[in-house]
Amino acid sequence: MVQHEQPGAQLHKDSGDDSGLQEGPSPPPPVILCDSPVTSVEVFHFLGTTITKERKWEQNIRSLTKKAQKRIYFLRQLKKFLLPVKMLVNFYTAIIESILTFSITVWFAAATARDKAKLQCVIHSAEKVIGCGDSMADSIEPLFNHKAVDKVTDSFADKTGPKEEDANIVMK
């Protein structure tokens, strides 16, 4: 009897099945740091950002939208107290927008259209509460662009950062 090898399959002798083949590559060897093995986790929370093993951002965005929606409740309460629109916009910018844009430069490029739509729903809800329509950000994309430009500008303004010649190359 001749056995044919399948791509990505390995011979697995301990298995009770008849094929003797196991799909997929073998797990990588454990990483050792300071004579201690490093364990692998599915989800990691770092400085308020949720990072998954697959480097997908759905959980992080779900967490951000949940936090922002909770803050919209307070925005509604402030509206009930008849605060001026300018103060409501300030609350939105300081509390809600800061949540939505936290670490946006890290995850935005990899966010799916569906995730971006969820974030947009939060922005739209805040706009409806405030009653200012299009005077706030049209979408999450301009917020990302603004934050990305700020990051680059700040890094080049830092005297301990890259030299001016490097800045001219990046800004072109």
UniProtKB/TrEMBL annotation:
GO molecular function, one term: methyltransferase activity
Stretches for region Disordered: 1-27
Annotated organism of origin: Hemibagrus guttatus
Superkingdom per UniProt: Eukaryota
Transmembrane helix in keyword set: yes
Start and end residues of each Alkylated DNA repair protein AlkB homologue 8 N-terminal domain: 57-98
Protein name (record): Alkylated DNA repair protein AlkB homologue 8 N-terminal domain-containing protein
Keyword annotations: Membrane, Transmembrane, Transmembrane helix
Annotated transmembrane regions: 89-110
